[in-house]
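Entry
Fold in token form

___
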Amino acid sequence: MDLASLIPSKQYRYYFEGLSKEEASVYNTVLTGLLHYSKEIACSGCTVSQVQKVYHFLKLDVPELFYIKNIKIRYRTENALHCTVIPEYRFTVSQSRDTLISMSLNCRDLVDKYKQCSDFQKEKAIHDYIASTVKYKDTEAPYSHEAPGALLYRIGVCEGIAKAFKYLSDQLGLQSVVVFGSSNEQGNEGGHAWNLVRVDGVFYHLDTTFDTTISSSCIRYDYFNLSDADIQPSHHWNDKLPECPKTFGIYEKLGCYFNRGKELASYIRKASSVQNTIVFKLPRVFLNDKMMVASIKKLLQANIQCGLKSYRQFSLTYNLKQLVFQVDLL
């Protein structure tokens, strides 16, 4: 049974574009074999290490391959240009097909609603959908590191969430890349996965996992469309990636970025009278983080409104690397 019909015909495959002619040929051969549930896939023209690289890139480019648990490679000598790929499948072909159909049906409303929208609208819709429905959870289930975990079962780790974002991007015709690297933030001191997204011809970093874990009383955009420079304090990668030269500035677009204290004070007075959660982003004007936090607390105490009262209790949380602050009124 061929599963190719369940993959978008114009799926964006960034890693494929960077392969040599020989590697690209193996890429297509292996992909065809996996979609046909072949027991063995004969490859030629590449060494074992090249085939391993191709398989790694395939799993990033094509999130529909969730049903591949692993591969073994049979070869005579490691540098020989002929080998056989032996896939290990997680599920039967009918189970995989049913899952792919369920994924498509599950996101149909989102796809139908945003298919004709701008790149930014598509990206934000996918981000918000995942941030509001998926719980970060590492389980023994085979789906937790794959797209179906997030899309069907509402759980996943960074890899599964990034692949789910890629899957939805492909459905909406948005160019997205799954990035494997590492992170030293939010208690994550090891391997990590996130996305690059191309919006109006420009690539940006987008970490939906990090935004999901901090989105409780509201959806956060701390890691939404960052430049290489703005995400490098917490994210690191080795694969060759498109350059991300600038930050999109979504908090500016949402009217929640303030250069002046008077503007922020006015915003807090207005927002606190009608909502219980306030989020805003600031420029780096303080050299000392403690001074910044203390200054903001004083400003909140002086400007939070509650009916005729000028002050009510609040909790303040913050992401100092991205200079985003959240106030929850109690």
